Amino acid sequence: MEQELKLQILDPSPVTWEKICKFPLLALGEAPALKLHAVYYDSRDGALRRAKLAYRVRREGKEWVATLKADGQSMGGLHQRPEWNVTVSSSAADLRVFTDPDAAALLAPFLDLALQAILETRFERLESRVDCADGSQIVVALDRGEILASGLCEPILEMELELATGGPAAILEMGAELCAHLPLLPDGESKMFRGLRLAGLIPADAVALGDKAAPLRRHENAGKALSRLLIEQCQQSLTAARQHATGNSPETFHHLRKAVRSLRALLRFCRTLDTDKRLEGVRQELADWFHQQSIRRDHEVLATYWATLAAETGTEAAPLYTWLSAEAEATAAGLGHLAATILQFWALLLRAALHSDEDLQHYAEMHLRRQDRKLTAAGAAAQTPIEFHALRIHIKNWRYVILALGDMWPSKDSKALLKTLSALQKISGAMHDADMAGQHLAGLATSRRHGLAFHAGMLMGYLHAREVRQHKKFSRHWKRLESISRPWS
């Protein structure tokens, strides 16, 4: 069983490559680079791909090695799948070389396929073996080269941490240390997946998706079930971080914040199961990252509001829109630190799941009712912008937890509840945006930068007028929330 963490190198500069090569933890030393050339095979109609099998023959130094990889799991950069390797005499395709009973059984339906080369990889690899404190051994592979398919090429610039002996927590902990100090992010896409996309054999916008999460069972242990759910949300957050590193747009940033918010909400929900407080540091690190990124979120939202208002009023958008966009971009994304925190969190859960003596249904329903009471009390007391902002956070956290636990009530319809919570979240967000605009734009509106000052004043006035309407909408939806049945009732 292959278990490896793939890390994409975000900065292609020679200086960064040299820094990575010399990073002490990797122990790469002065070993010469190994030249690798791999050919991936499949039938014209993609029969192996449809069966979730990958077959390649790769030249490693003076030897050719045939490799078969079967379906497994790939999420958040951690790849876990069955793998068989056989030394062969040439790069010619021949599925019969795999004599292991399990591999032979998988390949039996495909032995007479007419195979053809579908893509190639050519790269140099620096390799080392690292001994971990827990006794695990990790093979480090630092790769630089290219993927070739259909006359096109795409660069390879990545690191693989493959578990030789021990448990997967060790490679996650090593990955966390590397992401904290080097421009690296976990990457769920294999070289073959990227090559298939380059060859046009899968859609250009295809993304590597992990397996569907195992359904929650009401009577399973609450600690184990919620640990598994937290790991799944760690994986989703890492995938969102990688997508944001690639896209770097308001949309990818919004998706990343939602993923981290959902993870934080579930972590808070599980707080009483963390009896020895070993996750307190993770909780604080995630909160710090989220709050630091709020400045970027605020400026991006204001830029969107202003673009709409400028279009509606025939006003030139550029000066204020440019200023807001520049302010947003000035906030460093901190993706490496975020990835390091999440990988460390994932490793902690693998080493020891949350502890509980209750089943999932009892724990979840008791705490959801408690959150319900707190939410109702906060809604009745909310009067000031600060109180409404706190209420908005309550609504978000409750909604994300209900979404995460939805499998528990398959026969109950929670759509009405979730729809109303979503509406309340959106409305309270718009109310918060008016207050947030005052914080960020008040100084600009009173400055001597006449064009910017006038536009900032326009936007503030628009958002405050909108806030009055949002208060009325909030009251209507809140009354609806009070009357909607809960799926756990």
UniProtKB/TrEMBL annotation:
UniProt xrefs under InterPro entries: CHAD_dom (IPR007899), CHAD_dom_sf (IPR038186), CYTH-like_dom_sf (IPR033469), CYTH_domain (IPR023577), YgiF (IPR039013)
The CHAD domain, residue ranges: 219-489
Superkingdom of the source species: Bacteria
Ranges for domain CYTH: 1-199
Coiled coil ranges: none
Pfam families associated with the record: CHAD, CYTH
GO terms of molecular function: inorganic triphosphate phosphatase activity; metal ion binding
PROSITE patterns reported in the protein's UniProt record: CHAD (PS51708), CYTH (PS51707)
Full protein name: CHAD domain-containing protein
Organism for this UniProt entry: Acidithiobacillus ferridurans
